[in-house]
Design goal:
The protein is α/β, with parallel strands linked by helices. The protein has 2 domains: 83 residues, Response regulator (Rossmann fold, 3-Layer(aba) Sandwich); 113 residues, Nucleotidyltransferase, domain 5 (2-Layer Sandwich), CATH 3.30.420. Helices cover 33% and strands 25% of the residues. The N terminus is likely disordered.
């Protein structure tokens, strides 16, 4: 199983198989936004064997093989691409769905399925972040759910934590941990250094904006 760094050494190849141009476009746009290699096809037989994961529209075509994932057309594109990445890396069951957050005027967030980093995002308001976290957890109903929040920017941190807890059903204070930047708490798979590195990386990126 690849680690979060190994997962993106080779550019992930995603195929979207659909006759619905709107469904295909929103998935393709999200995949390209993340820097993934993605192509759209009308028939699953046209998909190259080298493809890492295949998204098909639910009810339109039957999934074929372990790397094919059927996506409800009502699912948001970010969650659909998350699911494809998990499928492509053989992660059929996710033990821990983890979000690592660096709070501030702009807020960085990294989304993990066990040891696999699915995406890192920058948010400019709490509502957009909360919606992403809620969707991420909704699509991992059987996983242990954890939120790690960097200990910096205490005013922003506490407001954010309260907003998350009050807005996301079943998210309790026990599921939200503060994350010291020099001595991180344990993260998925025991890789505490990943969280600190992600927070540091996101902070440097936002300073360049």
């Amino acid at each position: 199983m690849p680690s979060h760094t190994e997962a993106f050494k080779k550019r992930f190849q995603l195929a979207v198989v659909t006759h619905d141009p709107r469904f295909g476009k929103k998935i393709v746009d999200e995949a390209r936004r993340r820097g993934l290699e993605v192509k759209q096809f009308g028939e699953i037989d046209d998909v190259p064997l080298s493809t890492d994961a295949v998204i098909v529209k639910q009810g339109e075509q039957e999934p074929r093989g372990r790397k094919t994932v059927s996506i409800d057309p009502g699912m948001d594109p970010a969650s659909a691409v998350d699911k494809a990445l998990e499928t492509g890396y053989g992660k059929q069951d996710v033990a821990k769905a983890v979000v690592v957050i660096d709070p501030g005027k702009t807020t960085g967030a990294a989304f993990f399925a066990d040891e696999i980093l699915l995406r890192a995002e920058t948010f400019f308001d709490h509502q957009a972040l909360t919606e992403n976290v809620a969707n991420f957890f909704k699509n991992h109903l059987n996983s242990e759910k954890l939120v790690y929040v960097g200990e910096g920017a205490p005013v922003f941190r506490e407001k954010l934590i309260q907003h998350l807890i009050s807005s996301i059903p079943d998210l309790t204070r026990d599921m939200v941990k503060t994350l010291p930047e020099k001595n991180s708490s344990r993260l998925a798979g025991g890789k505490d250094e990943i969280a600190a590195a992600i927070i540091s990386s996101m902070r440097r990126t936002r300073k360049r904006l």
